[in-house]
Amino acid sequence: MTGEDELDKTELMLKELTEAHGAPGDESAVRAVMDAHLPGYAQRTTDKLGSLIATVPGRGERPRVLVGAHMDEVAWVVREITKDGYLKVFPLGGWWGHVMLAQRVIVHGSKGPVLGVVGSVPPHLLPEDARKKVVEPKDMYIDVGVADGFNVKKTLGLRNGHYVTPDSDFQIMSNPKLYLAKAFDNRVACALVCDLLQAVRPKTLPGPLIGIGSVQEEVGLRGAGTSAWAVDPDVALILDVGIARDTPGIDAPGEKLGGGVAIDVFDAGMIPNNALLQLVIDTAEKSKIKYHLSSMDRGATDAGRVHMSRSGVPSVSLGPAARYIHSHNSILHRGDYDATLKLLLAVLKRLDLSTVGSLTGQKSKANVGAKTTPRRRPQR
């Protein structure tokens, strides 16, 4: 195990972000970590749903460049407490039954965090046909130490509606380039937003750089919709993890750890702006940054909401790939993180007013992000 004094700046930030607990609707702890790692010159606010908005001023007001990451992680919410004190939960985000069982969790009760473990009927007591099936989350429960009439409601302050999150520490693996942690989906992108805003000084870009830490992505991209409306961007770079496919049993080519930046060509929620996609690809090639093109026929990112905000926002989704997302332990390659940050910085240098206007066929620089003011009828 690596001690905190041996971690570099990025590793320490990833540790703090991944070990923070942030169920959809309860992201305040993650927001506090991001806020601590943002530069002092970034102007901070939140929207009314709780998404973090941090702005580094540009030389002018346009183009407004949004770089977004979601703060929440897949989690659960308590929906029932049995008479014996076991917790029945409802998934918040996509959980596969195989990866839930026997895992440690933290229940966030009114008297503080409570340790628990996910349980179900033991296979020894199941009929043969049931043993071959995936146990559904609805058939699982959380054991917080039930025995001898222990009253979990009164003693531990638990009730329906309390959030439950995975319990897992950040670790550097034997291969020092690989990190193991929960919630790399999408705390790795939260770290990238912080690093990016640290690297960009005020008034060095044509327009503002706006970093977003959105809420409730795992339950329907909700925070992305409100935050994008609030900041009115001209272009958006949405950061999220790719799904690594370099493990046994997966024959289709695609993302792999150490493969550089995964750039999405489509997913279930968005077809990227083609001109912006090509600009990102050209920038990666010109800068000799490793990348690969990815796609998801199921699943989406915050770009699915951002690109439909107001009259539309040219958007693209990119980021490092990770193994075993939506589980208690996923794996990230540090080289992919560094490549993503390098690519983001290179792309930002190309997003001037003229280039951003050309993404949507706007010839006049003045038209980028221009507000339309309705004409008033003359008084009779």
Structural summary, described in words:
This protein is of the alpha+beta class and 380 residues long. The protein folds into two domains: 4-73 and 182-364, Zn peptidases (Aminopeptidase), CATH 3.40.630.10; 75-166, Elongation Factor Tu (Ef-tu), domain 3. Helix content is 26%, strand content 24%. It contains eleven helices and 18 strands. The protein has helices at residues 9-19, 28-37, 97-100, 128-131, 152-156, 184-199, 222-231, 274-286, 303-306, 334-348, 353-358; strands at residues 43-46, 52-56, 65-70, 75-81, 87-92, 104-109, 112-119, 141-143, 163-166, 171-172, 178-181, 209-214, 235-239, 242-243, 261-266, 291-295, 315-323, 330-333. The strands form two sheets. Strands 1, 2, 3, 10, 11, 12, 13, 14, 15, 16, 17 and 18 form a twelve-stranded mixed beta sheet that branches. It has a six-stranded antiparallel beta sheet with strand order 5-4-9-6-7-8, with no helix packed on it. A hairpin with a 2-residue loop joins β6 (104-109) and β7 (112-119). α6 (184-199) crosses α10. The chain is globular. 48% of the residues are buried. Mean pLDDT is 93; it is low at 371-380.
The assigned structural class equals alpha+beta
Task: Calculate the terminal CA-CA distance, rounded to whole Å.
Answer: 79 Å
Order of helices and strands: HHEEEEEHEEHEHEEEHEHEEEHEHEEHH
CATH topology (level 3) name of the largest domain: Aminopeptidase
What is the alpha-carbon Rg in Å? 22 Å
What can be said about the biggest beta sheet? 12 strands, mixed
